[in-house]
Task: structure prediction
Amino acid sequence: MRAKLPTRAKKTPNNELLKAGRIAGVFGIRGELKCDPTESGRILFVRGATFQAQGRDVSEPVTIASVREHQKRLLLRFEGVEDATAAERFAPCELLVARKELARGVGPGEYLDIDLVGCRVVDAAGTNLGTVRDVEHYPASDMLVVGRGMIPMIREFILSIDLAAKEIRVEIPLGLLNDADATSDGTSSTTN
Result:
């Protein structure tokens, strides 16, 4: 998935495999599979594209023979998979691609979630507010999960993002993250 942010940060080169989508199950009897793509991965799902299928029962490269949209999901058929029985071994699994391929779906001011997770969040004065544990996606905005709290990823709150330094500088309203949420490990910084 990708997060929309107000500024563009430096990208660090990396050839690791990242999630482009998830196979949720078999669809019909012709070997189609229900796929939930990540936002940045969606554009990669075209006929002839190759992914690494990784799951409990499968770990192999697959090539898309056909793709179509159905009820906000993609329906995929892989080369060599002609019926539901052959497709079953791919459900569930993740479809992985090289970072450089996934980054093609990331526009200006957008970042891969994996690049934001682990970033230190600091306020304008440099005070550590915690570490990004996850990025959640909502219709109104993407949210940085810090401790047990969340910071909306909007221009008014995000001052800068430096992926090379793994730091996100924010200016948030008092009380958005309380003391218990303002430590990197999510533990309370107050005494009981």
Q: What stands out?
A: The chain has three helices and 14 strands. The helical segments are 84-87, 99-102, 113-116. The two ends are 39 Å apart (CA to CA). The first strand starts at residue 2 and ends at 4.
